[in-house]
Amino acid sequence: MINFMKLKYLYFAISLAFIVPGIISLGLYGFKSSIDFTGGSLLEIELKQTKPTPAEITQTLETQAELVSVTPAEGQRFVLKFKPLDRQQALTIKEVLTKKYGEVTEIRFETVGPTIGRELLRKTLTAIVIAAIAILIFVMKQFNQFKYGVCAVLAMFHDTIILLGAFSLLGHFYGVEVDTLFVTAVLTILSFSVHDTIVVYDRIRESLKTNHKAGFTDIVNKAVNETLARSINNSMTIIFMLLALWLLGGESIRWFVFALLIGTITGTYSSTFVAAPLLILWEDLKNRK
């Protein structure tokens, strides 16, 4: 049996190596928010005859509206994001593009006001807090000890902070925006992170019932050895699917899939190398008092 828990402080150091840069980035740069949060208009078009570069489209529309970004999509499609437009302005932009590049097909046009954007952000934060409280209560009730709930939630926030920090850095250096799909990814990761953690904790609980003479660290280490292969195998099936989607899927879901990839990897890591060591640390601190 491998003594994984003797390296628990190394696992914490590895986690900090990812968490600290992310927190610094969040403090300095924040996120590059999409119109879902800031308010604005999105116009997705398909050009039938030519495919100009995003820079050429930006130059063509520079006098028509306040263009925020131009993102190439599948085939001849482009996603144009503006400060808020009305329907007539959108039609004018389409006419300008038609004169310049030939036939233009409108795929979708939508506008989100800044009030709706702020409301969406508020609801997102509320959902995360409610999820954390619900998970804390559920895990604590299932295992009849407060420490299990707290450690599970801390491991969950470990995964969330790494994801948020990663997208803060991606937004600053590569212009990656966070939108409602990113919110979906964050909430999905909250549940996935706790899923593997509960498996490890359940094995610890069962071992405590049958091994009364063993030390708590030995029990945790035994549980990690028994569940690690299962956790990795389960996660790899998800990772393979997400990699296929990331490589072959459309531009509109690429960063959503990437967020799920980060969450799957960090969730697998944290359930074994964060949640379990935190229990040992909690027990050690309690015994010192």
Largest sheet: 4 strands, antiparallel
What is the multimeric organization of the chains shown? single chain
What is the terminal-to-terminal distance?
31 Å
- Look at the helices and sheets and give the structural class: alpha+beta
Question: In CATH terms, what is the architecture of the largest domain?
Answer: Up-down Bundle
- Quote the CATH topology of the largest domain: Multidrug efflux transporter AcrB transmembrane fold
Number of domains: 2
Salient structural properties:
289 residues; alpha+beta; Multidrug efflux transporter AcrB transmembrane fold; Alpha-Beta Plaits; 2 domains; four-stranded antiparallel beta sheet; 10 helices; 4 strands; 10% strand
In words, what does this structure look like?
Helices cover 71% and strands 10% of the residues. The protein has 289 residues and is of the alpha+beta class. It has a four-stranded antiparallel sheet with strand order 2-3-1-4. It is elongated and about 80 Å long.
Provide a compact summary of the structure.
This protein has 289 residues and is of the alpha+beta class. It contains ten helices and four strands.
SSE arrangement:
Elements: H1 8-28, H2 35-38, E1 40-47, H3 54-60, E2 67-72, E3 77-82, H4 87-101, E4 104-112, H5 114-143, H6 146-174, H7 180-210, H8 216-248, H9 254-273, H10 275-288
Antiparallel strand pairs: 1-3, 1-4, 2-3
